[in-house]
Design goal:
Distance between the termini of chain A: 62 Å
CATH superfamily of chain B: Response regulator
Strand content of chain B: 15-25%
Helix content of chain A: 40-55%
Number of domains of chain A: 5
Number of strands of chain A: 21
Number of strands of chain B: 5
Strand content of chain A: 15-25%
Shape of chain B: globular
Oligomer: heterodimer
Strand order of the largest sheet of chain B: 2-1-3-4-5
CATH architecture of the largest domain in chain A: 2-Layer Sandwich
CATH topology of chain B: Rossmann fold
Radius of gyration of chain A: 36 Å
Number of domains of chain B: 1
CATH architecture of chain B: 3-Layer(aba) Sandwich
CATH class of chain B: Alpha Beta
Order of helices and strands of chain B: EHEHEHEHEH
Distance between the termini of chain B: 14 Å
Chain lengths: 689, 121
């Protein structure tokens, strides 16, 4: 079944290539002169075609062939990019995707035939040209079957008189791969006897290439009869890294020195090359050339090793998830170990426990960073969405993305796709007006949707803003009243009105179009985001546009928390939002008005008793602690019995039975096996607001 | 500055093919129908390369190569001869006369471009 494994790899590779292809095509649409992009498109097509045919996807190869030909023409400046060309290319991407899931699918669906016909026409009967792509060094190094040749090229002295330029030939050889060239002047006569029209120099080229000896020989085809050309393989990378040839061996191999002289010299423990020159056995030139050769081989080997090392490893994501689970368990066990060590007051053990703690922290950070992905890959999917939908609706919309390099946990990214699609669809369908409407409103014909991401503390902010018509508050209210979501005559703030959009079964679109759904959207979006422990906010100015902000946690698995106690129950407050902890004496702070406000360094801060909030019946101690947190730029205090300290919190969900519990977002197991509840500060905060 | 190439052939179709192929690559082309014609046309602008057939009326390619090499301004100019497979001896003769390289007929336009780039740089 190994064929299946290869197919699997190909499908994975092709899927990635398709995505890259799509991105490039869309960029190309904006910038049709960019040859770099054309080259990228061509390469992607080329790879898909080539590997497709190898792994039994002849259908794909057949489809891509004509497209590839066309882009080749573009690449060579013989054809310009046209819009139909891009449209058909994008459609081809879709078909290829289908073919990947179903290898039996033939390339003869009407659309596939249409695409083939289109590209065959544009591509014309272009000659199948052999393309010499300049090989970049990085690309060369990771290739297989590399060989290093030593090429000695002694042109006949009369070579110039035949109109040949030896320098060009040397350069041509050097261009075949990675080369070190030494020009040797050993045969140069005295100045008196030099004939300037003759060539006395000869060259030694050390070339690392994936080409064959014949390819190298072909370069010298016009001059091989008169010139002396020797080609030897000096390194084919089959040996290990340590068997580099010594300088004496190289000179010996080349016949620059004979064996007896060499062994005689070996006894003197000087640098062998220098000794040879001293004794006049080899010329300085010959030595330099040999040294260059040694260095070349060494460098290439080192670079090859480095290039192979930095290449990445593909790992199924389940393995990564499992690793994170294990790290989570390890963190819990480590906490237990530390606790026991403290309890026993065993110095030896404390030392070990500290060491383990440090290692576990590093392990945790490392594991988390492996799971971090750039959000840009998600963003690029939307370019296609915006392009297709805006065309369908007759609107002109440009999607601008910022902060694609922002990293966020893989699981968050995966669950973010659907809500984002929904929000962007809404912007396209409800937000941005048609070109006519926009002109009438005095706006630019083309609408813009800006998708941006950036870090803010331990969360990531994702903003979707458009310059469309904004949310019509009156329409929202009217609808809400008609649906019975609000009673007549209630006064609502802007924020409340926008919140109505998230109510189940609400849709303001007059007509249901194929683009935005049937009002099942926004409440689902909010639920999805909240399931990620995130929040969603809408701001909108009528006529100017809408701005939706998603705030998401960086990771779902482990956070730094502040462990606090109320009665005998442990609670965890996310450390990232904690500002400070202050001792709190209830009696001293009771204000006459009964309002719960504390003065901290000339700032009035409202506070709540978590004890009464969670309905814990026991009596509070005389001296309590107040944990001051900061949310959305405002400070709030939470009163607890005592603060234990910071705690690496491995988040466990409470399970289905408790899913409706508000204000507790999860739980964590402490070192001694007891359970701490994670306080959902955001919920409590908005609740009391 | 664009380089100038002199193409010498009694067959107008070959000349046209050479001209078409090399003009596309950005070279200036001067055409001549035989050796005599070629020599007559070398007086003007500097010629950077010569592509010549061997069998031609009035003056054949070998003689042309010898004549050209005798001129100081053509001592180092690349000269490419067009030969057919069967003319191996001609090839040697041409080399002896001073030709830089050869292209075997029939040839593809790409071959011409490759060789031109090879000798002109």
């Amino acid at each position: 079944m190994s064929a299946d494994v290869h197919q699997e790899v190909f499908i994975q590779e092709a899927t990635e290539l398709l995505q890259e292809l799509e991105e490039s095509l869309l960029e190309l649409d904006d910038n049709r002169e960019d040859m770099e992009l054309v080259a990228r498109v061509f390469r992607a097509m080329h790879t898909i075609k080539g590997s497709g045919a190898m792994f039994g996807f002849e259908n794909i190869a057949a489809l891509v062939h004509s497209i590839e030909t066309s882009y080749d023409l573009v690449r060579n400046g013989k054809l310009g990019i046209t819009k139909p060309m891009l449209d058909y290319s994008l459609k081809a991407c879709d078909i290829i995707k289908e073919m990947l899931t179903d290898p039996a699918m033939k390339a003869d669906s009407p659309l596939a035939l249409e695409i083939s016909a289109f590209f065959t026409e544009t591509g014309g009967q272009a000659p199948a040209k052999k393309v010499h792509e300049p090989v970049s060094k990085e690309a060369l190094l990771v290739r297989q079957n590399l060989t290093t040749f030593r090429i000695t090229f002694k042109p006949s002295p009369e070579i110039l008189l035949y109109g040949s330029n030896p320098e060009l030939l040397v350069k041509e050889v050097a261009a075949l791969g990675e080369a070190s060239v030494s020009a040797l002047t050993t045969h140069m006569p005295d100045l008196n006897s030099i004939e300037p029209e003759k060539c006395y120099t000869y060259w030694e080229i050390i070339l690392t290439t994936d080409k064959s000896e014949n390819d190298v020989r072909d370069v010298f085809i016009f001059v091989q009869d008169e010139s002396e050309i020797n080609i030897n393989i000096i390194d084919d990378f089959t040996g290990g890294g340590d068997n580099l040839k010594r300088i004496g061996e190289i000179l010996l191999e080349k016949g620059d020195i004979n064996n007896e002289d060499l062994t005689a010299l070996m006894d003197e423990r000087k640098l062998i090359g220098e000794v040879m020159v001293e004794k006049g056995l080899v010329s300085q030139d010959a030595l330099d050339a040999a040294l260059t050769e040694q260095q070349h081989v060494r460098q290439i080997r080192e670079q090859k090793a480095a290039a192979e090392n930095i290449s990445s490893v593909r790992v199924p994501s389940e393995k990564l998830d499992f690793l994170v689970d294990l790290v989570g368990e390890l963190v819990t066990v480590q906490a237990r170990l530390s606790q026991i060590a403290v309890k026993e007051n065993n110095q030896e053990m404390l030392k070990v426990a500290e060491e383990v703690e440090r290692l576990v922290w590093e392990l945790r950070d490392n594991t988390m960073s492996i799971r971090m992905l750039e959000i840009g890959s998600t963003f690029s999917k939307f370019k296609r969405l915006v392009r297709d939908l805006s065309a369908e609706l007759g609107k002109e919309i440009e999607l601008v993305t910022h902060g694609g390099e922002t990293e966020i946990d893989k699981t968050v990214i995966e669950k973010l796709g659907d809500p984002l699609v929904h929000l962007i669809r809404n912007s396209i369908d409800h937000g941005i007006e048609t070109p006519q409407e926009r002109i009438a409103a005095g706006k630019e014909e083309k609408g813009h949707i800006i998708l941006s991401a950036n870090h803010s503390g331990d969360s990531v902010l994702i903003e979707i803003s458009d310059d469309g018509k904004g949310i019509d508050k009156a329409a929202v209210l009217k609808k809400a009243k008609a649906k019975g979501l609000v009673s007549e005559g209630t006064e609502l703030s802007d924020k409340d009105v926008f919140d109505l959009i998230f109510a189940p079964g609400f849709s303001t679109a007059e007509k249901v179009s194929s683009v935005s759904g049937r009002g099942v959207g926004m409440d689902v979006v909010r639920r999805n985001i909240e399931a990620l422990r995130g929040t969603i906010d809408i701001a909108s100015v009528q006529g100017k546009g809408t701005n939706i902000t998603l705030k998401l946690p960086l990771t779902l698995a482990i956070i730094d928390g502040l462990l606090v106690v109320i009665d005998d129950q442990f609670f965890i407050i996310p450390l990232s939002i904690v500002n400070e902890c202050i001792e709190f004496n209830e009696a001293a702070h009771r204000s006459s008005s009964g309002r719960r406000i504390i003065m901290v360094r000339n700032e009035l801060i409202p506070y709540i008793h978590l004890r009464s909030f969670f309905n814990i019946q026991s009596e509070a101690p005389e001296i309590q602690q107040i944990v001051i947190i900061e949310l959305d730029g405002r400070r709030v205090g939470f009163v607890v019995d005592s603060v234990v300290g910071d705690h690496q919190t491995v988040i466990k969900s409470l399970g289905k039975a408790f899913k409706d519990i508000e204000c507790i977002s999860g739980a964590s197991v402490l070192g001694d096996g007891s359970v701490a509840l994670i306080v959902d500060v955001q919920k409590i905060y908005t609740g009391i607001e | 500055m664009a380089k100038t190439i002199l193409t010498v052939d009694d067959s107008a179709s070959i000349r046209q093919m050479v001209k078409f192929t090399l003009t596309k690559e950005g070279y200036n082309i001067i055409e001549a129908s035989d050796g005599k014609d070629a020599l007559a046309k070398t007086g003007g602008s500097k010629i950077d390369m010569v592509v010549t057939d061997l069998n031609m009326p009035n003056m054949d390619g070998i003689t042309l190569i010898k004549e050209l090499r005798a001129k100081p301004e053509f001592r180092f100019t690349p000269i490419i001869m067009l030969t057919t497979e069967s003319q191996d001896s001609k090839k040697m003769e041409g080399k002896a006369a001073g030709a830089t390289g050869w292209i075997v007929k029939p040839f593809q336009p790409e071959q011409l471009v490759t060789v031109t780039k090879k000798v002109l740089g």
